[in-house]
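REQUEST ID: PR-0412
SUBMITTED BY: lab tech R.K.
PRIORITY: routine
TASK: structure prediction, single protein chain
INPUT:
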Amino acid sequence: TLNTTNIKNKNFMWTSSFNISFNNNKVLALAESESNMLTPMIWDSGYNGVPLYITEIGRPISMFYGYVWDGVYTLNDFEDTGGGNYTLKSNVPSNGAARTSIRPGNIKFKDLNGDGLIDSKDATVLGDGVPKHMGGFSNNFSYKRFKLNVFFQWSYGNDVYNANRLMLEENVGNRSHLNQFASYANRWSFENQESLIPLNNGQTHYGTYSSRVLEDASYLRLKTLSLSYTVPPKYISRVGLGTLSLSANLQNVLTWTNYSGMDPEVGIRSTALTPGFDYSAYPHARTATFRLTATF
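STATUS: complete
OUTPUT:
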């Protein structure tokens, strides 16, 4: 923490307060001589038993775990056998499904061990839900009878698994009753082969986690903006007032982030073993409050 007085004179003062904290952790041991522990996230019936986190000796606790997303299969991955039929080339790895069922536009994963098949041996650490550091920066300004507070907060280096995109941009489980994000209109098709959103009614790999929707949730937020004014005594003494002040306060004013969800500061059902998961979480509300304080 660092507190400073930047300017101080008869009419104007500017003070600042800066703080930063680092969160470093390493797993030293697990029960029963285990080398790692897998943890699922309970949020949807198709995923309840599927591990999304791995806690491994020598690494930070609860790293994201799954398959490395490699886009979608393109026409170059297939032999065109005519009649609208395509056969996956022998040197192109499958995605865990039967090779004969894979079509252009289906989701594709990286074959990390090079055996031509996507299975549990290709699952790996994908990211970390714990920030590398976080902090705040507060500035207080006073000019005569005006006071202004500007407070920023930030978080850096943490990932969030945006499960909203699984349900609403990938249509996992082919749920015909479920509406989708507007971005789903840009999904892969033979007329839109540049898209990286998997094919409509293709293999959705319901119950499979990958890095496709794992996002950097670093952010900088203008958390508080507060302005107040104290009315001079000569104007209020005439009406029997001792003091009179007016103030306005804004919370969660602006957020700068690359996270595509509603709020990067999120974590449903969050525990030490399940950090950084976003599914239908309500964002921090932007609020405005006004106050008038008078003494007699």
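NOTES: The first strand starts at residue 2 and ends at 8.
REVIEWED BY: pending
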